[in-house]
Amino acid sequence: MAERDIERWFTDQQTRKTRRLEACANKRWFATEAEARAAALWDRTQFGERLTSYSCDVCTGWHLTGGHRR
Q1: Do residues 24 and 56 make contact, with C-beta atoms less than 8 angstroms apart?
Q2: In the chain, where are the structural domains located?
Q3: Phi, psi of 52 (to 5 degrees)
């Protein structure tokens, strides 16, 4: 019984990791915080969107949050 629990836990962990990588792949990616902040400022001036940057622990890059993805 315990072996099945471990196998189920491992499968769940792999599924979560795959889902996080897929979600990350669909986001705008920036190499640095400065690049992400510049893009957020550009989006604000062009589209009125208030976006903020955040460091991604999945891809070690930077993404934007607070608006619609393009």
Answers
A1: yes
A2: 2-65
A3: -125, 155
Q: How far apart are CA 70 and CA 11, in angstroms?
A: 32
- Indicate the SS3 state at residue 50: coil
Token pair of 30 as six digits: 């920036």
Neighbours of 53 (CB within 10 A): 20
Residue whose token pair is 């622990």? 57
Q: What is the pLDDT of residues 1-31, one digit of tens each?
A: 588 899 999 999 999 999 988 988 889 999 9
CA 29 to chain centroid: 8
Rounded to two decimals, what is the model's pTM? 0.68
